[in-house]
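Below sits my pick:
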Amino acid sequence: MDKTRRGASWCRKTPPSWSLRTGLFLLATMSMVSTSATAGSNPTPSVVPGFTLSTFASAPAGSTAPDSIAIVKNTVWVAFGNGGKPDGSDGAKSTIVEYSNKGAVLRSLTVVGHNDGLRLDPHTGKLWAMQNEDSDPNLVIINPASGSMENYTFGKTPHGGGYDDIAFRGNAIYLSASNPTADSSGNVAGPSIVEAKLEADHTVSVTPLLPGTPNAVDMVTGKAITLNLTDPDSLIFAPSGDLLLDDQGDAQLVLVHLSSPDKQKTRVLTLAGSVQVDDTIFATSHHGYLLVADRDANTIYRLDAPGWVRDIAYSASTGVAASTKAPITPAIPAYVGEVNFHTGAVTPVISNLVSPHGMAFVATQ
């Protein structure tokens, strides 16, 4: 990323005395002290000083497991997976709910399959809902004004799995190729990212963009390495213009510079402590708020701050397992944290969540 960008999280140096494990331990202690959860109930989230957390909305009756979030003008759209299998084999149906900016339900739509990707195409003003991230994917394109839906299908996927997230840049459309098939040695041929095109017969054709084992530069050490992307997940464009892919199971963020195919450059940020993350978002305005879908708590939270630093990245983390070797530390619950692109640290901002997944930043100015 562009290290000349002022205020960006990858520009700011982390003090050497601040370790990820120490920071996580202190913040987890804060969250454990503040929680009033009882056995069998969800824990009570807490935030670091300077932030305010509130409940934006809960799941409507009959819907569970909120995940992806998309913003359409002044409304918020949230996809509920309803506990369906990620390959769609159980005939599951997902619910796409439109909320007002105050959290009131305005409309509910049903799509066939397990939704795990919901994005607004700024070029057309339509919503893309991607189902079945493990295999047999399908796409539903929603007109937010009318609620009408168009169904699209895919041919055999080149990586053996499904598709998860979507990113748009001009007329170009990119998909993360999730759940790839590995060979007997555990290596993934890929692709891990494809470029998609809608065809007249309501099918989606794809062209491989990033392989499963690309050459990359380590953003912390500067060394050249070869990656093995076993778990492509979320996609988003970073402020630098690079396409950011979350390689969730491998605990790393991959940035692809798309200036042209022959000049494509790939960089990787290995997350400190092998922290696994789902959605990553960037603050796009000094004024606004962050929405977080805590899937297994069936709740969408709103995070406010007196002022946001533009271009800072935040990721939803599954948490940190307890250490079994000295120094012994307890398990850290799931959280949302600020990403440092110099060190790979993801420092908690919201602690004591259950299972945060989808996020969105809503600019208010």
